[in-house]
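User: Sequence in, structure out. Go.
Assistant: Echoing your sequence, followed by the structure tokens.
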Amino acid sequence: MALFSWKKQDDKQPSPPSGSAPASSGSDAAPGVPSENGQPSFSPEKASKFFQHARTVDEATNYEYAAQLWLSGIRWDPNSMEGLVGFFQTIARFNETPSGKKGVSKDVVKTVSGKGDVDRYALALLEWGQRPTESVLAVRAAEAAARLGIKAPTRWITERAFGIAVKDKKPRKDLFLKCSECFGKADAFELALGAAEHALKMDPTDGELAARIRNLAAQATMSKGGFENTGKEGGFRSNIRDAAKQRQLEDADRIVKTEDTLDRLISAAEEEMVRRPGDLPTTERYGKHLLERGRPADEEKVHALYMATFESTKQFRFREMAGDIRIRQSRRKVTELRDMLAKSPDSEMIQRMVAQAEQEHNQLEADEFKLRCENYPTDLTRKFELGKRYFALGQYHEAIEQFQEAQHEPRNRAAAMGLLGQSFQRINWNEEAVDTFRHALDIKDLLPDTLMELRYHLMTALQAKAEAEADVAAAEEADRLASAIARQQMSYRDIRTRRDAIKALLLKLRGRGDTPPSAGGAV
């Protein structure tokens, strides 16, 4: 299948995909290698075998090898949307693993490295897939696809690249222009026009670009109206045939969806489920739309679907998503009961119901996150979340174990150490609590609210230590912290009563019976 003309390469030709037969003449040539007629040799059939193997390996959670297989298949059939979408789903899962932080191995990079346009395309996909928010890498992948003349992949990639470029903290005109060019090569003239207009906003004085935009506007109008197809089979009718599909895509992209929109999306997903039983992306899409509609029956249907998918594929992420549904339902129950209590604050029955619902919710979350930590033992964020649930349940020894590991994740370090110190304090390990809060305060660039909270907890830990051990030095330091917090924010928590209690404790430890100043006195 010759998608585009072969460009003569250097002496060294790209190797065939891993697991394929060595390159020879004719139809068995490696992808991008010229066959007898001087055109590059491609094989959707061989690509399909790689894709099938990639899905199997992905389901076995060997995401790095699965990504390599997707790319190997793409080299046999660069025009394949199945391979493109499959690769990005797999590489996204790989990025979430501990290995994903280091990136793919050199061996994987080597399998897609080469001097041909197909090789450059595969390598661009790999580089972008590992850093999906990098606009430069996304646009580079779009350019590589456009260079091959593969319109569907070019449009798919460029749409995402343009979205990333728009979200950049410092948007770049050159990236918008490149996206516009790629859209144009994919015959997506309306999108090309939009990208060019973004570029013009950044440089309104660019007269040449303004003229180009006028040309793109004319092309977009003709393309949208179907004028370019006049006299050809389909013509205007092709627009009518595509309308249903286009509407479905637009419905899916809407942030706020009406009931009718969701009903259409769910119906379309159900039909796709029948056509492609066992297809995981279709399963996820169907579940997503049902949860967006959010009826109780929808939630139960998705929960059963995800649990069945987990049992059949052993992919834990479906078990995790099923657990999220139960957590959502439990949290909603707690919220409803709290609203009832707000309307009847003196009702002892509702108070008991709220307390029981909160206890059950905390236990449910703890059980769920314990299961997740067992399946992702190196994920420190999940350990941090499990520790929070143990803390809420009053299981402080178990919470301490989780926070001690979670504190090594920079993103959660301050919060984990704060809760670790509080856990030590709850079991009366005051010395350990004080040391933990001190170390937490040494973290650089703490937010003001976090800094205040840690100082407050250090004060209470020092107060507890002074009371338990008659430690005058601890009481004096607690007194200084209480005074500093009160001077900064008199209304912070219970600082007024804390300050008076610490003053009284300090006088007692020094052997004086003087009455401390009242909470309304001078600070």
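User: And one key feature?
Assistant: The mean pLDDT is 83.
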